[in-house]
Design goal:
Helix content: over 70%
Number of domains: 1
Largest sheet: none
CATH topology: Farnesyl Diphosphate Synthase
Order of helices and strands: HHHHHHHHHHHHH
Shape: globular
Oligomer: single chain
CATH class: Mainly Alpha
Mean pLDDT: 91
Low-confidence stretches: none
Length: 305
Amino acid sequence: MTSSFRIWLDAARPKTLPLALVSIITGSALAFSKGEMSWSVALLALLTATLLQILSNLANDYGDAVKGTDNENRLGPMRAIQSGEVTQLEMKKAIILNVVLTVASGLFLVLHALESLQNILAFIGLGVLAIAAAIAYTVGNKPYGYVGLGDISVFIFFGLLGVSGTYFLHTGHLDTLLFLPAIGCGLLAVAVLNVNNMRDIENDSACGKRTVAVRLGERKAKLYHFALLAVAVSAFAMYLSVQQSPLWISLPFVLSLVVVIKHGTAVWQTTQPAQIAPMMPIVVKCSLVTNILFSGVVIAQTLIT
């Protein structure tokens, strides 16, 4: 692996990519349960979501570096610009290239999946909003991530729109109960962001980055984290419980409760932000495992009944 490739691979932060992919997996599994899943739509949606997540990571690297939030006091992994391996100009070019690729992938997706001009235009509009949200989180004069609005954005784009949008691309319609898995997926994505913000709570506060964790304080941020996890798992479980299938098919989903409780307990027992740092890959795995177990149960319910 060349040095340049490694630098840009690290800047893309591949360990965070499951955060974007799980909403596509969940939405596709729900479409499968209706007999309307398209593999080509699923693959194109996965590609577009991956590019959007990478765009968000690159823009975050750039925005925090420009504002001085990425400094020697930050507890997370070294960022590309912060390390000096990538200049601000190089990162700008990478962001522009990623925007072009994301737009191309997104356009191909909606044109392939949708027929109605109205639906195509609506999804193009949502795509523009998603790109703008990915960049404006830390970039610009008034980045919304610095005033505590990141959680809302993540909930909407990685949950509500991610799951329901994917389902619509497959089926061409929405379902009343979609809001339950969409909420579950979105709240787990917010939990990932919350771990990130709890880890950086001291440095963010000193730099004027008023995340939800900073606003709540360490103890209340932990309680908030528990609430995110509990409501997320409950939302998934509620969806499964109302399906017309034997209860035993849903039992594997109980494993997600074990994973989530173990993670939540570990977070609660931390006494300083530095101890939160190792929790980042774990909470991403919690989101991945929970969504995959849910999707697996949905598929099993469909095949058996």
